TrEMBL record:
Cofactor(s) essential for the protein: FMN
Keyword Oxidoreductase belongs to the record: yes
Protein name: (S)-2-hydroxy-acid oxidase
Sorted UniProt keywords: Oxidoreductase, Peroxisome
Subcellular location: Peroxisome
Domain of life of the source: Eukaryota
InterPro entries xrefs: Aldolase_TIM (IPR013785), Alpha-hydoxy_acid_DH_FMN (IPR012133), FMN-dep_DH (IPR000262), FMN_HAD (IPR037396), FMN_hydac_DH_AS (IPR008259)
Domain FMN hydroxy acid dehydrogenase intervals: 1-236
Enzyme Commission identifier(s): 1.1.3.15
CDD domains per UniProt: alpha_hydroxyacid_oxid_FMN
Keyword Oxidoreductase found: yes
Family affiliation: Belongs to the FMN-dependent alpha-hydroxy acid dehydrogenase family.
């Protein structure tokens, strides 16, 4: 089954906020994923060092342009601080829920307390994520906090996870710890860079076949069976 989630961040431009949601709805997206861990961009020193350029984004069509904004610092950092609203809070989540019927998922939850608040706020799901470790040094690895988040949510809403999943065995561990799904970021980008569309397919096929092999070798015919078999599999040691 294929479906698309709309990746959403609060823009400073208030009219654009609802416009983007309406566009997502009319273009058939199945859910809104609100990123909650990026009020500002983390300090990405490699971007600064490499003077990361961004496409000229005077409007969304700008994405089609190959012209870049030449900034002395990271162009991405400049773009985020110019366009995104750093004051995002729980009341904005209430507003976002009020303007759409699409399920709303919060991406960037890393504590049991925030997971509980998300459930209380009536969102449809959460994504345990540290933004691929790209936002804040020393933020915990998502896999290390997954279990406590799953415990507190206790089945009220689905818990998804991302960050550092590179093997089918990694995915198996997350499913064993109670994640409903695992999301990937950089692996598909690596595949794309190496071999275009075929590379992306290859990455997904590799992860799928590794997961299937892990399931076979641990005696799990279906994803549902992973829960009990997870205990026999070596999980990360967490201090
Ligand atoms: C090139 C790139 C762009 C990203 N852009 C966004 C973004 O706009 N919003 C967001 O919530 N996360 C963004 N992320 C983070 C991913 O959604 C995801 O949390 C992370 O990449 C997962 O970790 P992984 O790359 O180890 O799989 C981006 C990641 C990469 C690599």
């Amino acid at each position: 089954m294929l479906f698309a989630f709309f990746s959403y961040m609060f823009t400073k431009d208030e009219t654009l906020r609802s416009k983007l949601v309406k566009r997502a709805e009319s273009n058939g997206f199945k859910a809104i994923v609100l990123t909650v861990d990026t009020p500002k961009l983390g300090r990405r020193e490699a971007d600064v060092k490499n003077k990361l350029g961004t496409p000229k984004l005077s409007n969304l069509e700008g994405l089609l342009s190959v012209d870049t904004d030449k900034k002395s610092d990271s162009g991405l950092q400049a773009f985020v601080s110019e366009s995104k609203d750093a004051s995002l809070s729980w009341k904005d989540i209430e507003w976002l829920k009020s303007i759409t019927k699409l399920p709303l998922l919060l991406k960037g939850i890393l504590t049991a307390e925030d997971a509980q608040r998300a459930v209380d706020a009536g969102v449809s799901g959460i994504i345990v994520s540290n933004h691929g470790g790209r936002q804040l040094d020393y933020s915990p690895a998502p896999i290390s906090v997954l279990e406590e988040v799953v415990d507190v949510v206790s089945g009220a809403i689905p818990v998804l996870v991302d960050g550092g999943f590179r093997r089918g065995t990694d995915i198996f561990k997350a499913l064993a710890l109670g994640a409903k799904a695992v999301m990937i970021g950089r692996p598909v980008v690596f595949g794309l860079a190496a071999k275009g569309e075929q590379g992306v397919r290859k990455v997904i096929e590799m992860l799928n076949s590794e997961l299937e092999l892990t399931m076979t070798l641990t005696g799990c015919p279906t994803i549902k069976d992973i829960g009990t078999a997870g205990a026999m599999f070596e999980l990360p040691v967490i201090d």
